[in-house]
From TrEMBL:
Protein name: Orotidine 5'-phosphate decarboxylase
UniProt KW Acetylation keyword: no
Positions of the catalytic residues: 66 (proton donor)
UniProt subunit comment: Homodimer.
Amino acid sequence: MTAPLDPRDRLIVALDTDIGSAEAAVATLGESVTFYKIGYQLGFAGGLALAERLAGEGKQVFLDFKLHDIGNTVEKGVASLARLGAAFVTVHAYPQTMRAAVAGRGESGLRILAVTALTSYDDADAAEAGYAFPVSELVRMRAQQARAFGVDGIVCSAAEAGLVREMAGPTVSIVTPGIRSAGDEVGDQKRVVTPADAILAGADYLVVGRPILGAEDPRAAAEAIVAQIANAL
């Protein structure tokens, strides 16, 4: 049986910033944070080297690159990323892309996360993109496909975490962005929840950026969210 996750390891801090600010944030947060997300902004500005360094120092790294391309390109790209020592990489939850990503990670420890629908999307955005059904149905369909293709985890709003757990089963990890504590600014997210609500909904990992990095005391903000996770568990 897999050991339960420590509450501290369930918090993923999003380093959506420049390389200097990211390195300063990591130094400030110290041992209060064990897991970091690196996306486009940082990844294209020195973030890959930082990811490799953090992994070498014992931190876990989530490469949030949302890969989506022809199968051969995705497979080879994932194989290259697997050499960095990262824990997670995201791909868009299209069948061909998911199959290629699973093939590309091979026997490495890299885990593939499928992005069902962005947390900045609501039903109106789905309709504008050409989908004839609401976001919840899009999430349902893609979660079922992800499980069938051997994907390790699903990225979704906590609002859909229960649905994803039902569709994808107990062994698939659920990662939820769009986390905001009570009173936080929502920003560009449309489907947000508190840390406790996300855990109670079935999320395994919570991605938090601005509420921590923008806090007067980032370390205290991170520790407060870890405490909320622990209390919810």
